[in-house]
Design brief:
alpha+beta; 7 strands
């Protein structure tokens, strides 16, 4: 019985890596402007934007279902343009004992390679892997990319 897992996805975007990284690092509250149909609200619950230990609450939708999560900013690596979020409350935690989201924006010539990693432990073996959540993030990349390229 395997309850732990790791899913990864990569996409190429046109926006510079530092701008994409900054949206999740210092300006996550702007993501709802870039993708209002996916992210309705992003609220700083505790701490300061862009600092480890901060708690962020997200209101978002997957497949027409409105969901809420709270996550703590566990680590920020400015040089490697990566951020690690650990989920601490919310709808996803009804099915998972632990859930981390790791984002890295990697410069690749005129493009940026966005790499998402989901690390999780399911509450039981009947719970599916978080493929919908990973798909949500991949599609969110496109919306943020469009927003940043148009800016």
């Amino acid at each position: 019985m395997v309850l732990t897992g790791r899913l990864q996805a990569e996409t190429l975007i046109k926006a510079p890596a530092h701008k994409f990284h900054e949206m999740f690092w210092r300006k996550p509250h702007h993501i709802s402007k870039a993708s209002p149909e996916k992210v309705q609200k992003c609220h700083l619950h505790k701490g300061d934007w862009g600092t480890p230990g901060s708690v962020i609450e997200w209101n978002y939708a997957i497949d027409g279902n409105n969901l809420v999560i709270k996550q703590i900013v566990e680590a920020i690596d400015e040089e490697n343009k990566s951020i690690t979020f650990k989920l601490i409350e919310g709808d996803i935690m009804k099915e998972y004992k632990s859930f981390k989201t790791i984002l890295q924006a990697i410069p690749k010539g005129d493009f940026t390679l966005v790499h998402w990693t989901l690390e999780y432990e399911k509450l039981n073996e009947e719970i599916p892997a978080p493929i919908k959540e990973l798909g949500f993030l991949v599609h969110l990349n496109e919306h943020i990319d469009d927003h940043l390229v148009q800016a």
